[in-house]
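Researcher: We're teaching a course module on how sequence relates to structure. For the next exercise, students receive a sequence and then see the predicted structure as tokens, so they can try to spot secondary structure elements on their own. Here is the exercise chain.
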Amino acid sequence: MSPLEKFEKMISYYAKAYSRNPSLSSALEYVLDKVKAGRASVHKPMTVHAELIVGDIGNFKFLRCPSCGTVYDAFRINSLKCKRCGKSLVHAYVGTPIDYGQRRYPYIISLAHKNSNYFIITPTDYLLHIRCSIHNDLKRVKPSNPNRPIYSLQYICPWNDRSCQHYGSENLCRQNSGGIVMFRNEEGYKRVPSLPSEGLTKPFSLAVFNKEEETEDLTKDLGGEFFDQVIYGKFKVWFITLFYLLGSASMPRSRRLPIIVESDGDVTLIGRDMITEGVLFRLNPDKIASAKQQVKVSESTVVHSISHVIMKAVIELSGLSPSEFSEAIYLDENSSTIELLIYDDSPGGIGGVRVLKEYSADAREKIKRSKEPCPRGCRRACRACLYLENCSMLNFDLSWLAAYHYFRGY
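Model: And here is the predicted structure for the students to work with:
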């Protein structure tokens, strides 16, 4: 089967597997349609820049003084002049919110005056302790660190009231430690404000492979009862980035916006190919089906979780950085072929995955340890169990419980 055919199969598979995430699923379907129509091309790694373009929307609830930066509730004042310096007040503006996939909260309001100096405010319904209980008016908001203007926001006392017990140095309000937190009414948990980021997150990528040179069968050494076959050898790997995910720093991965690189209706995919060392695991379909049924997760979740268990074992055994390894998964529509490849992420290989061959007994013990329940008892996956920084699929569809059930008795 050609690499293109494999890519089409895997993109189609994941478009269905991620049906619970409409934005991710629709992005995969869009790329798949372009590939099938011959409107997609693959380029070697290049610099990619994506911008989040949002219009400003007037917010008539808040006014501010362009001179001193004081913020006023427009419905609680009798004059359009600043009470402190006499300057005419201007409207604040709100950028379209990109957070948790919802468009109504929290509205991050950026003061759109050239002298605003990053002063921001949000609707009082979503920002805790913004109203001063002594003066019964809104506090001022200012970043304490100009290099982190949003995350270092603190309340400033507009009245310079030194008699207040919360008054701190540099006019800071120290009530509740001075930090600014927001909460979502319907769920009630707190978090810090953030702006949508124009920086790209890690790209969403897929890899496919073909065997170039088989050198050794490791099935017996690494556990034939769980792997139908384990092969160490040389593999040709094609790695392609399908799109990028964009969002605010506090946004869950599942709510980020897919950004597809496109020009004149053609999709540009960023990719590379190489021959490297790898270890191919052919998984047992019956055990996959059993784990899937017991944990009530998708087939792709079980396979991806197993891949991370093996990856973490290889990383620990080799002593190398996680960035030195990568994974490629192949599943066909009828589940008769389920394969995953753990490979050195460098042309020719660096000897990393070779530890599975040279220290197979130790590797088996490492896999046993890596498949154990999460020590923090997380719901699906976290940094204490299966989460890997270099996961090409951004750690979607992981479950330590699924891997644990697959390897039960290992």
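Model: If you want an answer key for the exercise: Confidence is low (pLDDT under 50) at residues 52-59, 93-125. The radius of gyration is 27 Å.
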